[in-house]
Amino acid sequence: MPRVIVIGAGISGLAFTKTYLQLSNYYTSFSLPKPVDKLAPPTDKSSIPKSFTSSLSLSNPLIPTETHDIIIVDENLSLGGSWCRSRIYPNLYTQNALGTYEFSDMPLEGEGVANEAGYIAGWKLEEYLARWSEKWELTEKMRFGIKVNTICRDPTTHEWILDTNRNPPPEHLSGISEDVGRQLRLYCDKLVLAVGTSSEPNKPYIPGQEFIDDGDMVHSVELGD
Ligand SMILES: Cc1cc2nc3c(=O)[nH]c(=O)nc-3n(C[C@H](O)[C@H](O)[C@H](O)COP(=O)(O)OP(=O)(O)OC[C@H]3O[C@@H](n4cnc5c(N)ncnc54)[C@H](O)[C@@H]3O)c2cc1C
Predict the structure, then answer these.
(1) Which of 92, 85, 90, 79 is nearest to 172 (CA)?
(2) Using CA atoms, how far apart are residues 140 and 122, in angstroms rounded to an integer?
(3) Which helix (H) or strand (E) holds 142?
(4) Whole-prediction pTM value?
(5) What are the tens digits of pLDDT across the range 62-92?
(6) 129 Cα to the center of ligand 1, angstroms
(7) InterPro entries, from UniProt (predicted)?
(8) How far is the CA of 198 from the centre of ligand 1 (A)?
(9) Which atom of ligand 1 is nearest to the CA of 12?
(10) How far apart are the C-alpha atoms of 24 and 141, rounded to whole Å?
(11) Which residues partner with 186 through β-bridges?
(12) Cα–Cα distance between 134 and 132 in angstroms, integer?
């Protein structure tokens, strides 16, 4: 199997990974995942599979050790992208009415999912995506706190080469990444960019901001932290 890296654990990255695995016959009709009732906490202790850290040299071809070599990397420390835990604050609601923002195989329902006007709560969406990922066995394929800085392609082997580094976690999550700051070069045969259109915060300069000294300037992506 080719080694596949998906950049982005938002809705697009998750949907791609599940579809890819499904089309690769990863899920058989006898072992379709069952819905989960317990949420797994975000983990990032698992290491990158060896096949992604070595180049495929033509003289020494690497034989992938896993049947399905796919990982999802994300610079955030948990899944969800726009709906990632670190971005969610109590009054963040989606602009979607209940029933209009969910995958067809799993309804987004339950107590407190929507407000009185019928709009879905942001944190419920994050929880929903976590459950859906558990259902489709995607959680174990995610590697968080990995920021992809540059991407290039080896002209000989045609591998994608990703230069990454570990993001430092916020203080209350210290210990989640064991090798913060470490640079890591990853290799893969297929690369999927699911990086979103609004994942990079835009912090415009506000004239006079340097004179505001009685508080920090906070972007909405930091509100959850
Ligand atoms: C505040 C806000 C409110 C929104 N409200 C709604 C709404 O109500 N309804 C609606 O339909 N849509 C809404 N959207 C749009 C929302 O972004 C999409 O619905 C959807 O969540 C996008 O999913 P995605 O997976 O394509 O991208 P994202 O959710 O942005 O995920 C991209 C992921 O890629 C990761 N990434 C990016 N670059 C790198 C890198 N270099 N290295 C490693 N990882 C990287 C990011 O960390 C992120 O986790 C909203 C967006 C924002 C920002």
Answers:
(1) 85
(2) 23
(3) strand 142-144
(4) 0.88
(5) 555 455 689 999 999 899 999 998 899 888 9
(6) 13
(7) FAD/NAD-bd_sf, FMO-like
(8) 6
(9) 25
(10) 15
(11) 162
(12) 5
